[in-house]
Amino acid sequence: MPEFLAGLGVIRFRFLLQAVTCVALGVALAIRQVGSQIALWDVLAVLIGAIAAHAAVNALNEYADFRSGLDQQTRRTAFSGGSGTLPAQPGLAPVALWLGIGSLALCAASGAWLLWRDPTLALRLGPLGLLGLLLVVAYTPWVTRRPWLCLVAPGLGFGPLMVLGTQLALAGRVDGTGLALSLVPFALCNNLLLLNQFPDIEADRRVGRRTLPMVLGCARCVRLLWLQWFATYLLLVAVVMAGVAPMAVLLGCATLPLAVRAGWLLRGEPCRERALLPAMGLNVAISVTTPLLVAIGLSLG
């Protein structure tokens, strides 16, 4: 048991809040459609499945990075470079692998329970769930070697798959508002992983990864960060102006100053540690807080 508890570090608990806020957005969308008809047990199953999926990709990524030698070469920061659990205690590698497999199984079980509760969802929710599981398994060995796919994979997982999957599981259908607002975590989670790749360029190159900072360089990737940040805030304004979301959704724009500050820090020399680390912290705050604020706005509206 002590060995198992020590190995839990590979799950990276403090980062699992991203899954919670994306589920919160999906729940708010579902409540907007069907109100109090949503069962608490269904919400709990969705939340467990989302957290388990996030934990699985973290654990499997840490295991693969330890086996490839990447963890021993990266310059670890508070936001990138792994948890440091396996380099410090190599004997925990099998624990990390089984934590990843077990979390993946728990995610699949939560999805199966939702389908058992409502078999009519099988043809709609099933493909989303299978794509999510495939993304978790393929991320480290396959996705990280394809730069543009590596850019959009995190956003796809936390945005359309997690948000729309939650809405579909709880409300039985998705709508235009859900499709539009799922693009908020899509863009922000893309940015989250993109910026976190900046410190690891050389280490990633040595183990065969191909990320966009390698291909385009950091300066061009900063422009991509700006593009996705401001596309997010323009989208929030657009859905309100189009009348498909309440005015309170603009609460999500409260993180705009954080994006401006992060972009300003990255000007000139984006890979300079003095600017990069605070920008990475702001980027985490933006990606976690914005979906939650949008969810609160939907609820108030």
Automatic annotation (TrEMBL):
InterPro entries: UbiA_prenyltransferase, UbiA_sf, UBIAD1. Its main location: membrane. Pathway: Quinol/quinone metabolism; menaquinone biosynthesis. The keyword Transmembrane helix applies. GO terms for biological process: menaquinone biosynthetic process; vitamin K biosynthetic process. It is a multi-pass membrane protein. The chain crosses the membrane at residues 40-60, 95-116, 122-142, 149-170, 176-195, 233-260, 281-300. One of its GO terms (molecular function) is prenyltransferase activity. The keyword DNA damage does not apply. It comes from the Bacteria. PANTHER family: 1,4-DIHYDROXY-2-NAPHTHOATE OCTAPRENYLTRANSFERASE, UBIA PRENYLTRANSFERASE DOMAIN-CONTAINING PROTEIN 1. This is 1,4-dihydroxy-2-naphthoate octaprenyltransferase.
